[in-house]
Specification:
Number of helices: 5
Structural class: mainly alpha
Order of helices and strands: HHHHHEE
Helix content: 40-55%
Strand content: 5-15%
Distance between the termini: 18 Å
Strand order of the largest sheet: 1-2
Number of strands: 2
Radius of gyration: 15 Å
Length: 134
């Protein structure tokens, strides 16, 4: 388990991830998705456009490349750690991008996750959030 945590912490500190995430997190569409006045229906209507947003697609491609890297390592060394997915959430728990080790269609992107992630990449100082670790 410790190996997973070390790798996740390492991945969360990669400058390219930070840059990709910052580009998506700063989108007006993300602000709109996180608007508490928006209904679930309004958010669902925004999802197709968000999935096609170029900055979000670049972040998603980055996650797929990183996951492929770890799956290639696993193919060479079956004792290596196995990641079956990589997810990026914003500070509000909105899933911004996801990569899976199969052809799963992710209907969670643009949705919110009910639990806190294990690690959070902080783009700017934010109010402390219980259960989130930097």
């Amino acid at each position: 388990m410790e190996r997973y945590f070390r790798l996740i912490r390492k991945e969360s500190g990669v400058p390219e991830l930070y840059q990709q995430l910052a580009a998506v997190a700063s989108l007006d569409m993300v602000r709109q998705l996180n608007d508490p006045r928006k209904s679930a229906r309004e958010i669902a209507a925004m999802r197709p456009a968000f999935l096609k947003e170029p900055a979000r697609c670049r972040l998603n491609d980055y996650l797929r490349q990183r996951l492929a890297y770890y799956l290639d390592r696993l193919a060479k060394d079956p004792s290596d750690v196995k990641f079956s997915s990589m997810l990026v959430l914003d500070v509000r728990g909105r899933m911004l991008a996801a990569a899976y080790d199969n052809q799963l269609i992710d209907f969670s992107v643009a949705g919110t996750m009910p639990t806190a992630p294990i690690f959070t990449v902080v783009l700017r100082p934010a109010e402390p959030h219980p259960g989130r670790y930097a």
